[in-house]
Amino acid sequence: MDKKLLDILACPSCKSSLKYLKEEQELVCIPCRLAYAVRDDIPIMLVNEARQLTADEANALR
What global pTM score does this model have? Predict the structure, then answer.
């Protein structure tokens, strides 16, 4: 994923910065505990399509 794109992307729900998880191909918002899929290097930034992180997953990312 392009570093410049990562610098400007924000969570559509709370506007926080996102963490890119390369192995999982997801952009994660820790405050919202949401993971947005990245498909073919295109982030799917739709709240209704985001995966809810478990408490353990969110804590591991802090």
Answer: 0.92
Q: How many Å apart are CA 7 and CA 14, to the nearest integer?
A: 16
As to burial, measured by CB atoms within 10 angstroms (0-12 exposed, 13-18 middle, 19+ buried), residue 54 is exposed
Q: What are the pLDDT tens digits along the chain (62 aa)?
A: 788 999 999 999 999 999 999 999 999 999 999 999 999 989 999 999 999 999 999 899 98
Q: How far apart are CA 1 and CA 13, in angstroms?
A: 21
32 Cβ contact list (under 8 Å, min separation 6): 11, 13, 14, 16
Domain 3-61: give its CATH code. 2.20.25.10
Rg (CA), the chain: 11
